[in-house]
Amino acid sequence: MSRSTVRILNIAFALAYVGDDAVGGAEQVLAHVEKGQVGAGHQSLVVAAANSRICGTLLGTPCQPKEISPEYYRYRYFEHKRKIDAALASGPIDLVHMHGYDFHEFIPDCNIPILVTLHLPLKWYPEWIYREPRPNVFMNCVSAAQRMAVPDCPRIIQTICNGVSITKLDIVPVNDRQGVTVLSRICPEKGIHLAIQAAHKAGVPLTIAGRVDGYPEHLTYFNRQVLPALDEDCRFIGPIAYREKIELLRTAKCLLVPSLAPESSSLVAMEALACGTPVIAMNSGALPEIVEHGMTGFVVNSSSEMADGIALAKHINPEICKEAAAERFSADRMVREYLTLYERMVEHNEASFSTAMGRSGCQWGTFHNF
Description:
The strands form three sheets. The chain has a seven-stranded parallel β-sheet with strand order 3-2-1-4-5-6-7, with helices on both faces. Strands 8-9-10 form a three-stranded parallel β-sheet, sandwiched between helices. The protein has a three-stranded parallel β-sheet with strand order 11-12-13. The protein has helices at residues 25-39, 70-89, 144-147, 192-202, 216-226, 242-251, 267-274, 287-290, 303-312, 318-328, 331-357; strands spanning 7-11, 43-49, 57-61, 95-98, 114-117, 137-141, 156-159, 180-183, 206-209, 234-238, 255-257, 279-282, 297-300. The radius of gyration is 21 Å and the shape is globular. It has two domains: 7-163 and 331-369, Glycogen Phosphorylase B (Rossmann fold); 174-328, Rossmann fold, CATH 3.40.50. The chain has 370 residues and is α/β, with parallel strands linked by helices. β1 (7-11), α1 (25-39) and β2 form a beta-alpha-beta unit.
């Protein structure tokens, strides 16, 4: 940004942990972007769980509980809103950047520009948000496939594809790799059971890494469809730190992304490619945008096809995977695009304010035409 230092308020999903090793993709993206803000000389405030690892000033909320009860929702709303209000009262804020899929519960009532990054499939948000009347609220998507879901929304002003750190570690030779892996939240829409079926059919060991959140339906899914399948060839190792994740990806024959959801992105697929590891992903949402079929992995339509892809993964060139990740999925590229968008939003807000003072009637709503 060419403008002098600005003060940015970053708002995570309520009570969520933010950091490079966060479980949620939105929280990982926030960590990268916030680090870029500080690296560019700007002031960053972050409302997120108190154990988050960020570069600016953290206004910490309690961490999410292991079991999520109905009372939790009232509690999380109160705690999250309290910290947002405290941040806004701490001094002038130039821009608010919201990342939580619950953002609509916490949109600040203010005149400063608000950017909302829509991390989930657009149909998963309340439909009314796309008719948000406040002229200072704008949104961006994270993939072309996601953007197509609501093509006529003027509040969505840009698509900024997600990015990840590009590892400088050496590529592990194909013949030295062992088994396949899944890294994901453990819930029905992520299709972990399909990865288990595919690995079993292909006759290769499977390592499942990820967190089981305390939602009743997630716990039921884990207990009924994942836990009974575990044995010496199918391991569940729970959530892992960033370095463990990269080592797991580097040493796997391939990453399986068996998701049944219309994925808006996939950071773990990008990270796998950055490690030189091919990805076998379901033909869902933005996954075909990330995986180049036959070049960096395979896009499949069933667990049976996924098993076939596992057998063919040895023919994918790891160097091509890593080069594709560096060219298309760099976190540095993502951060630059956000900083450029911030500059446009802050400068337009200042111009709108000055024009309004001069009674010419310039409106925020014209921003998307710039």
